[in-house]
Write a structure and sequence with these properties.
heterodimer; A: 364 residues; alpha/beta; D-Maltodextrin-Binding Protein, domain 2; globular; B: 415 residues; mainly alpha; 3 domains
């Protein structure tokens, strides 16, 4: 019994020591979680490093693959270790609905340099109840020039035309973006896409369009896959996130071309998981990293557009290659002629049903 | 007689001493098994119970709208739309939930049952404070969905704490409006197909690991010790390599510009534009899984084969059996315990395979764990993910029972 008591004593001391060690190690730092790769790199350069030199608070980067599962686990078990997380717009709304995120609607965001208040400087969708936007990213499709020595694909319809442009196609495994692109390729104009998709006939039409190239589709799941698939010749064209293709072209010299016709824009935003230990510091970080300058700086490292209007004229050249970044932004006027903005409210309402329909279609 | 009596007296003392020492021994042995027992409870029984409970129990909604829940429990779809009282109560509770920031929790659960219900609930709560009695008319005026029975049936269903709906959905069944169990519409059926595919793929993988593993194990058990050790290292080396690394190596081998295709083109068997698509389909997934799981079949077979004395075969031969006959009738039956262990191990591991199908599977090679992960990570429908996991576990347990009846679990031998 004495042995037992001594054993328990040792364990108790160990746990106590560990928890002290943990709190002292993390009290002066923030854990910021994002998608990894060149994207996280751009955030480290434009947000984390300046933030640390101004406030002395260290920023630790962690990577994840999107979704709310980790945040939900942390909040539900009361062990929140992520202080700030970069999420997609749909997850920002969903997480807020589920009570997983700290409300940010009272957060004071600095105005633009010319005095425009933050509320009108940010894009409309970029300030929500629990999130503050940083970038506009886009799902485009890109092709490998080696696959098409003659005529080049130029419209969204060409992505679905395997007669004119033979070869495998890469698509993200999921109904979001895939169904919208199918409808646009079938001749639906961007402002009608969600109205059509809300009807049973429209949904059938989208699946029928997908059926027409079904055997040529290769599905991808993580954003790093499309450039790889294109480079390996596994597909001739693929939908992809525009920043990934830009990096493959500019940094890795790959012969890819982006087709902006039918691009689908979305936002990434900062959220703060509810019940974290560093909420105040996290809020400071969010406000700091969404200033006009910080957002414009990020565009030096990756081709995603800032969500503040006042940042757009400040977008300069790529940090390594010196390429002018403006024409590579999803929001650049030349690229938005036939662009769609992802309707998160549509997806909040219909994602369960469409996920199910899509999975069933895929399993056929 | 007196002797016996004195022995009895001493016997009582002895018995007591024996009992005492026996008790102490039992306590010690209990203490020794206590840590693994606690571990089992904490790391297995408790989480499994939790997963199982999540599959059928969820009190979120009934806690957010308790009064509506009570009213709805006595409402039946046969009565038509609920009374004004129910409308008024719901509206009041929705407005309160919006203030408490719990409205979304209710809305997302309702949305699992009925598409677009989230939007209806949110817009109703937003404008709820300004609405006037009679609430039934004003709510239907705001959204005609409030005038349909579907949303009320869905509301009643999510407000029930205990429900089998997730388990039903795991096998493509659902409750209809009246509460009887029906098949989901054809364009929404997925899981039976995926469960059967998972079963089929696991069987194929088990069969091929057995087919390929048996000769290797036999060779290892019969060659000289020195060579056997070398072979063992060759089997173990990939076994110790990370699963992710082995899966990615298969991508390198199988892709369009990969090693295998390059070799075929180089030898002239294929022209450059005829390159085969060997991954992102079921075949590629199966090939990789067989290779990755092979050691799990080889090792138990090897350890059993090593213990079979060579004299058995010699005896059979000396009694006049041909080599083939002796092998089939004497050697193979002796290997059954190892064979059985290997097949069962590979089969159970296959049913839960996740990384390899996720990376190599494309759409044809997706297995049930990919769907469980999808609902954990993307839809956040953890109740459904839990139910799917339980269905898989149940399936494996049924197969295990069948296996026990056919092969006999006591014959199983890992070494």
């Amino acid at each position: 019994m004495l042995l037992m008591r001594r054993f328990l004593g040792v364990i108790f001391v160990l746990i106590l020591g560990l928890s002290f060690g943990m709190t002292s190690a993390f009290s002066e730092s923030l854990t910021v979680v994002s998608w990894g790769g060149s994207y996280t790199h751009s955030q480290e350069k434009a947000y984390h490093e300046p933030f640390t030199s101004e406030t002395g608070i260290k920023v630790l980067s962690e990577n994840y693959n999107g979704g709310l599962a980790e945040i939900k686990t942390q909040v539900e078990t009361g062990t929140v270790t992520w202080d700030v997380v970069d999420v997609e717009l749909s997850d920002a709304l969903r997480g807020c609905d589920e009570g997983l995120l700290e409300p940010l609607d009272t957060l004071a965001l600095p105005p633009a340099p010319d005095g425009t208040p933050a509320s009108s400087d940010f894009m409309e969708e970029a300030i929500t109840e629990c999130a503050v936007g940083t970038i506009v990213w886009s799902t485009i499709y890109a092709y490998n020039e080696k696959s098409f020595p003659g005529a080049k694909p130029s419209t969204i319809a060409d992505l679905f035309d395997t007669k004119k442009f033979p070869g495998k196609r890469g698509f993200r495994k999921g109904p979001k973006v895939t169904l919208e692109m199918a409808l646009m390729a079938d001749g639906v104009s961007p402002n009608q896409v969600y109205a059509v998709l809300s009807t049973e006939a429209g949904l059938k039409r989208a699946f029928a369009k997908l059926d027409s190239i079904r055997d040529d589709i290769v599905w991808w799941e993580s954003g790093s896959q499309p450039p790889q698939l294109l480079a390996d010749g596994e597909v001739a064209m693929s939908t992809a996130y525009n920043g990934r293709i830009f990096n493959a072209v500019v940094v890795e010299d790959q012969p890819f071309t982006i087709v902006w016709d039918g691009q689908i824009q979305d936002l990434d935003l900062w959220v703060i998981p509810r019940g974290g230990k560093n909420v105040e510091a996290a809020k400071r970080f969010v406000a700091f990293s969404t200033t006009t300058k910080a957002l414009a700086d990020q565009a030096k490292y990756i081709a995603y557009g800032p969500v503040r209007m006042s940042s757009i004229p400040q977008v300069g050249r790529h940090a390594d290659s010196g390429v002018d970044m403006k024409p590579h932004m999803p929001t650049s006027p030349a690229n938005t002629k036939n662009a769609l903005f992802n309707d998160v409210f549509f997806w909040a309402d219909f994602s369960e049903e469409l996920n199910q329909r899509f999975a069933s279609w895929l399993a056929k | 007689m007196r002797d016996v009596g004195s022995v009895g007296l001493d016997g009582v003392a002895l018995k007591r001493a024996l009992e005492r020492s026996g008790r102490r021994r039992r306590m010690w042995s209990f203490l020794v098994v206590l840590p693994p027992l606690i571990f089992l409870l904490v790391a297995f029984v408790y989480p499994m119970g939790k997963v199982f409970t999540r599959g059928f129990y969820d009190s979120t909604v009934s806690e957010i709208i308790p009064e509506t829940t009570a009213l709805l429990s006595s409402w039946d779809v046969g009565e038509g739309l609920p009374s004004e009282e129910v409308y008024a109560t719901l509206l009041r509770e929705l407005v309160a939930a919006k203030k408490e920031r719990t409205l979304g929790l209710l809305g997302t659960r309702l949305n699992f049952e009925l598409s677009a219900a989230l939007g209806v609930v949110k817009s109703t709560a937003r404008r709820g404070a300004k609405m006037e009695a009679p609430y039934k008319e004003s709510m239907i005026g705001l959204s005609e969905r409030w005038g349909s029975l579907d949303i009320w049936v869905a509301l009643k269903r999510v407000s029930e704490n205990v429900s089998m709906k997730h388990f039903l959905a795991s096998v493509d069944l659902e409750y209809d409006r009246e509460g009887s169990i029906v098949l989901v519409p054809e364009e929404e059926r997925v899981y039976v197909k995926i469960l059967l595919r998972t079963l089929w793929m696991s069987l194929v993988v088990s069969f091929f690991t057995l087919l390929l593993g048996f000769p290797v194990a036999h060779l290892m058990a019969t060659v000289k010790r020195k060579h056997a050790n070398l072979l063992l290292i060759l089997v173990l080396l990939p076994f110790w390599t990370s699963l992710l690394v082995r899966t990615t190596s298969w991508i390198v081998l199988l892709q369009r510009n990969g090693v295998v295709n390059d070799l075929l083109v180089w030898t002239g068997l294929l022209s450059d534009d005829q390159r085969l698509s060997m991954m992102f389909n079921m075949e590629g997934t199966l090939v990789a899984m067989v290779q990755i799981l092979l050691p799990f079949a080889i090792l138990p077979m090897y350890s059993v084969m090593r213990t079979i004395p060579p004299s058995y075969m010699k005896a059979a031969r000396s009694l006049g059996a041909s080599y083939g006959y002796a092998f089939l009738r004497v050697y193979v039956p002796c290997t059954i315990p190892g064979l059985a262990a290997g097949v069962l191990l590979v089969f159970i591991l296959s049913t839960g395979y996740y990384i390899t199908p996720a990376l190599l599977g494309g759409d044809e090679g997706m297995m049930i764990s990919n769907f469980i992960a999808f609902h954990m990570k993307k839809t956040l429908n953890w109740g459904f993910a839990a139910a799917l996991a339980c269905v898989v576990l149940l399936g494996v347990m049924v197969l295990y029972w069948l296996y026990d009846r056919l092969v006999g679990i006591e014959k199983l031998k890992l070494g």
